[in-house]
UniProtKB/TrEMBL annotation:
It comes from Micromonospora gifhornensis. This is VWFA domain-containing protein. Residues 319-339 are annotated as: Disordered. SUPFAM superfamilies: vWA-like (SSF53300). It comes from the Bacteria. The lineage of its organism: Bacteria, Bacillati, Actinomycetota, Actinomycetes, Micromonosporales. Keywords: Membrane, Signal, Transmembrane, Transmembrane helix.
Length: 422
């Protein structure tokens, strides 16, 4: 009874990513979507047709696939040879169901393809997502095409946003086989909406290498599914988070608050990534701050590039020292199983973005946010930024500069004196 009473008074325990997630048990799932429209007959890649280069790359990738990979193949524009656009824009089929790799069957299915019809990219993406089904791990679609959609609606960019808005762990990577600006913009939009990547393949070697890399990435999935959480508009009453990975959505120029309990001997480490899944204006940024419950800022993390153009990230570290200001401690701090409420500091994390939509851009749903929280043993930190051993190098450079100046001056005076005598 006493334990139950203490738990009730202390409040709910922090939400944990492990509360709703299960370890990954399913194998990687990949769906290749190949454009077989009439334009794939063009012979502008190493003097070969685009379709033959794609078939060769696909064969090499299939031979190198890990046995545990589940692979499916969907094509578009592969069967209808007529001129009826309405019928041609329904031309997409799954020629190999998603499942354990049958290498001979997969290569034979692709080798017999001949460029034929229209380019219903949007419809093919929507059907490919259905082919992969749902699951606990991220699933990948790799789209290989040489042209923009000729059948919209549905617009492929909008389809990608719809898939992202469903909260499914689906990533679409795009490979462009034609040096066309419209195609590039469309494929960039599809990839950005789902957190994928876009690559222009200008040779058979480029296509094969990139395709292998993308298929390999299917194995880099979460050990657990990120837990869904809804941040608050103020710190008070915000969700209390335990170490884990969380997913949320944030609208343009919004601030979302979360809380994390930290003991005096611990260090908080947090990072956030916001995906630009729709067109935004050029000036943007992401800010992650840690504050005390009374609003005082403890530390902030500056946004940084992630190597991708569709994601902006920020991170921070903060240690709760034993001599910290007692005002940082809150009466509503919730104890962890190994600490009492009196010894815990509740740190408020606030995620802010400085994004603004372009004209005509949908504001809802919010942009995908991934928040990672960890609490570890506190590590020693320096009193402030300094040069450390760099002082020695600075001193050597100063002395070298003085000596160089002195020698240069002496040589100059000698040369001037000699020139005058002549």
């Amino acid at each position: 009874m006493g334990l139950l009473t203490a738990t009730t008074l202390a409040g709910a325990l922090p939400a944990s990513a492990d509360d709703t997630a299960e370890p990954v048990t399913e194998p990687p799932r990949v769906q290749l979507v190949l454009d077989v429209s009439g334009s794939m007959r063009a012979t502008d890649i190493d003097g070969r047709s685009r379709i033959s280069v794609a078939q060769q790359a696909f064969g090499e990738v299939v031979d190198a696939l890990p046995d545990e990979t589940q692979l499916g193949i969907r094509v578009l524009g592969a069967t209808y040879r007529g001129e009826d656009k309405k019928q041609g824009c329904l031309d997409t089929q799954q020629i190999v169901p998603v499942g354990p790799v049958n290498r001979e069957r997969a290569k034979a299915a692709v080798a017999t393809l001949r460029p034929t019809g229209f380019t219903p990219v949007g419809l093919a993406l929507r059907e490919a997502a259905k082919d992969l089904g749902r699951g606990t791990t991220a699933r990948r679609i790799v789209l290989i095409t040489d042209g923009e959609d000729t059948c919209a609606p549905p617009d492929p960019c909008q389809v990608a946003r719809e898939l992202a808005a469903q909260g499914t762990t689906l990533v679409v990577d795009t490979l462009g086989l034609a040096p066309d600006e419209k195609v590039r913009r469309q494929l960039l939009c599809i990839a950005a909406a789902t957190g994928g990547t876009y690559t222009a393949a200008t040779s058979a070697e480029d296509l094969t290498g990139r395709l292998k890399q993308l298929v390999d990435r299917a194995r880099d999935t979460y050990a657990t599914t990120p837990a869904k959480v809804a941040g608050a508009d103020v710190c008070q009453g915000a969700p209390l988070l335990a170490p884990g990975v969380y997913t949320d959505r944030e609208t343009f120029s919004e601030h979302r608050w979360y809380r994390v309990p930290v003991r005096p001997d611990q260090e908080l480490r947090a990072s956030v990534s916001v995906a630009m899944d729709r067109p935004v204006n050029p000036d943007y940024g992401v800010l992650l701050r840690a504050t005390a419950s009374d609003g005082r800022e403890l530390v902030r993390g500056v946004d940084a590039g992630s190597g991708r153009t569709d994601v902006v990230s920020a991170g921070l570290r903060w240690s709760a020292g034993a001599d910290d200001d007692e005002q940082a401690r809150t009466e509503d701090a919730t104890p962890t199983p190994t600490a009492s409420a009196a010894a815990v500091t509740t740190v408020c994390l606030v995620v802010s973005n400085m994004f603004s939509p372009r004209a005509g851009t949908e504001k809802e749903p919010g942009m995908p946010v991934e928040l990672t929280v960890d609490v570890v043993a506190a590590s020693p930190t320096p009193d402030g930024p300094d040069l450390g051993r760099g002082w020695v190098l600075l001193l050597l450079l100063t002395l070298a500069g003085l000596l160089t100046g002195l020698v240069t001056g002496l040589l100059t005076r000698w040369w001037v004196a000699t020139w005058r005598e002549k």
